[in-house]
Design goal:
Blueprint: E1 4-8, E2 13-19, E3 24-28, H1 41-48, E4 52-57, H2 63-66, H3 69-75, E5 81-84, H4 95-105, E6 123-125, H5 131-134, H6 150-153, E7 156-159, E8 168-172, E9 177-181, E10 184-185, E11 188-189, H7 199-212, E12 218-221, E13 228-229
Parallel strand pairs: 3-4, 4-5, 5-6, 9-12
Antiparallel strand pairs: 1-2, 2-3, 7-8, 8-9, 10-11, 12-13
Length: 234
């Protein structure tokens, strides 16, 4: 179940394609867009690998992690999009206002059109829930019985606010994998100076990760093109 890492978008986001059972997969933080000239990278990779994406999972709502939503939705019109409810306004009809707030502070307002009118969330990530539980009723794969794929049940949501209010990590205990978004980087963590950020909250979130995630877990961060063992951070 090794995730495939693609660096996409204006800030080199680690977009992940995570295999499930059969030829299915879910996509994490798609950032490829026409502004950067890489809008077809994720879709082309899925097609080359003959993978069918069953969901788009967003670790948080910042512009550099969501810019690829329109292209994926155009190719896969019914694909569900999941994000924590606290970051939901980064998507949908409010997306331009929310995204422009951060882009203006960063001096990158030229990117605003690329994250305006984004599709809204289909469902929400919930702390301690599995992806299967979060996606209940959204899909019914023919390779599994019922509504929940066993592979999705292996992924647990950890709500880790601090970088944004709705930042989340995805933890697979049996596979020893953590998809940390911008909560945790190698020897560092996500910035907390944008709207919704909190240094005290992110420190609490990092403490929680140390407490609940096994030290030999391999961490895939939201930026930087490599994974690392959590034990290197302890």
């Amino acid at each position: 179940m090794t995730p495939l890492l693609l660096q996409t978008g204006p800030l080199g986001v680690n977009t992940l394609i995570v295999p499930l059972c059969g030829n299915r997969a879910f996509v994490v933080d798609p950032a490829s867009c026409s502004f950067c000239g890489d809008e077809n990278v994720v879709v082309r990779t899925l097609q080359q690998l003959d993978l069918t994406p069953v969901a788009i999972i967003l670790t948080h709502g910042h512009f550099d992690h969501v810019a690829g939503l329109p292209v994926l939705r155009k190719t896969y019109p019914t694909i569900p999009i999941l994000i924590h409810e606290a970051d939901a306004d980064y998507l949908g009809e409010n997306s331009r206002t929310m995204q422009e707030r951060d882009l203006s502070k960063m001096g990158f307002s030229v990117f605003t059109n690329s994250v305006s009118g984004l599709p809204a969330a289909s469902a929400f990530l919930k702390d301690e829930a599995t992806l299967g539980e979060c996606m209940k009723g959204l899909w019914n794969p023919d390779c599994c019985e019922g509504n929940d794929c066993a592979a999705l049940e292996g992924w647990r949501v950890l709500h880790t606010p601090g970088h944004t209010k709705g930042s989340c990590c995805l933890y697979n205990k049996s596979e020893k994998l953590l998809l940390s978004g911008d909560t945790l980087f190698y020897m560092s963590w996500g910035r907390t100076d944008l709207a919704g950020g909190s240094e005290s909250q992110i420190r609490k979130s990092l403490k929680r990760i140390r407490e609940v995630v096994a030290p030999d877990t391999l961490v895939y961060p939201g930026h930087d093109k490599y994974a690392f063992a959590l034990s290197e951070m302890l």
